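Severity: low
Component: inverse-folding endpoint
Summary: output formatting inconsistent between runs
Steps to reproduce: submit the following structure tokens with default settings.
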């Protein structure tokens, strides 16, 4: 297998312009989640930062499954498996787990290049959103 075919296989069902579109949609979701929390006056859990990260993680997961019914079913199945975790873990732990699920779905669907492009911005957002408040 040549390098070009390997890269094409790891793009999954995405094209190079989809990377920029996914990044914009993920960051827009974070911004809108943050603004919605501010407008609603969220002062306790979940706060504005957690809402921003939650919106971005969900946008990332939805970008990974897009219009694929099997991937959508797999994402729902994993979300149901994590359902018990919601009650027993912190917001940071849950968001980290959801982030890991979205990464697994993306890499499992042979879209690892797409995941690689989105992991750093979302990881930084996750670090900001779940940081301890002073």
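Observed output (run 2 of 3):
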């Amino acid at each position: 297998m040549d390098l070009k075919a390997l890269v094409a296989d790891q793009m999954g069902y995405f094209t190079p312009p989809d990377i920029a579109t996914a990044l914009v949609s993920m960051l827009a979701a974070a911004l809108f989640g943050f603004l919605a929390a501010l407008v609603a006056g969220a002062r306790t859990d979940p706060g504005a930062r957690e809402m921003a990260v939650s919106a971005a993680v969900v946008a990332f997961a939805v970008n990974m499954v897009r219009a694929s019914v099997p991937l959508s079913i797999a994402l729902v199945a994993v979300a149901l498996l994590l359902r018990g975790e919601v009650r027993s873990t912190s917001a940071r732990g849950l968001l980290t787990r959801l982030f890991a699920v979205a990464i697994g779905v993306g890499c499992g669907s042979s879209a690892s290049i797409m995941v690689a492009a989105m992991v750093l911005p979302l990881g930084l957002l996750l670090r900001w959103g779940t940081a301890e408040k002073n």
